[in-house]
Amino acid sequence: MYGLDGPALLLMPALWLIVGSRPTRWRCAAALAVNAVFLVEVLGDLAWFLDHDKRWLHVALTMLPAAAVCGWTLPRLIRTRESHWPHQPWLAVPAKGAALCAVLNLYFAVVPHERITPAVLAAPLVPAAAVFLAIVLLSLRDHPRGRLARASLGIGLALALVVALGAAAMTTSTVTGYAANDLAEARTRAVRVPVRTGRVATEGDNLYFEVRGSGPPLLMIGGAQGDAGFYTYPAALLADEYQVITYDRRGHSRSTRNTTSFDIAQQARDALAVLRAAGHDTAIVFGNSAGAIIALELAARYPEAVTAVIAHEPPMIALEPDRKSLAFFAAVGRTSRLFGAEAGMFMFSMPVGLPFAAYGSIPADFSTRTAESQAYFVEQEMQDFVSYRPDLVALKAGKVPIVPAVGVTTQATNRYYGRPAGILAERLDVPLVVFPGHHMSYFDLPRSWTEALRGTLHRTTSVPGR
């Protein structure tokens, strides 16, 4: 059943809307069948998006309206000639309610929350209830004022609901410690701090890198769609104490993509080549997500070049096999190959569960650059990263300090990419460090997140603050 949860989640609102516009036996049956598939996925813990504390909510939003359709609409459709349905508009009311519930179900599947509180529930439910009341009143009118009036009212209600859900997502989406002033300060500093750019040729490709500040070298490795811009804010904030080196990984953004195959060992060699091109033989290495995996590979293969590694949320779901997540990533790859990289990347992004404020905090031009490498990441890199198993023996033998790290929001929402950090800490018998925020809080919490990183660097390497 893996891979059916996403299509069912997206199909349900459309199918129930079709049933609500013109109820027939077969349309009801199709919508109920998709609804049943979704319920099996949720109750069987097979859904990729499922937060355990939301299971009751997903069940309620799908089972209750389906029960209303089965108990009210479907029996009457069986007894009534379908050509007579326009004279019995009340038949469509349960299906329209089911369509609204399916939209809310999609909302709660996509919008991240640390906890479901009454305020979180009320934010989308109240406007949806208002829209449903308006729909019922319109449906029960004997003779609406023509098709144009009905279409205008329907479009208006739909837009009102979309706006309301968007506002609810922005105001209740989890943003631990968000402060607009901190973001403004980080953006200002990013503009003021000088950036030296360079390129290094290695193993058939040309890698773009950036250097900021002076002091002990800190190499920061990006994750999915490996653009140097991931660390624009922390690199600028840390430039007063460290020489921060960031780069576009092979195949992404301003680096070239001449190599046709993907190899994590080669990614580690790339990191080493960038470090040496920046003028250093050793550095502290920070990596987030897939970048954390590369940092661990670098420490295992070249411990002499690594002072310490801070591995923030490496998605090594094969470390302690998470079969549900592995099946999900296989489905992402199939989706990308069948329907295009945009569809695959959309599917990949949904369970990441980033607060919506994070997307509004992304540096200028970042999205434009990374859009061009979506297919490369989803179809070439992703599967190797999630299947990666670190060489624990080599990491222990190399004696490089390894600091697994996880965001507090990631822990609270039990995301697939957060659990491996805790497992790694246990296997290496080292402490797990907790950072503010979520998987990419260097975007929307740049100051507090960077200060947590700075403190971790101080404790790990005994570099005194200035």
TrEMBL record:
Keywords: Membrane, Transmembrane, Transmembrane helix. The keyword Iron does not apply. Coiled coil: none annotated. The keyword Mitochondrion does not apply. One of its GO terms (molecular function) is triacylglycerol lipase activity. Residues 216-322 form the AB hydrolase-1 domain. GO terms for biological process: glycerolipid catabolic process. The chain crosses the membrane at residues 6-22, 29-50, 56-78, 90-110, 116-140, 152-170. Gene3D superfamilies: alpha/beta hydrolase (3.40.50.1820). This is Pimeloyl-ACP methyl ester carboxylesterase. It comes from Plantactinospora soyae.
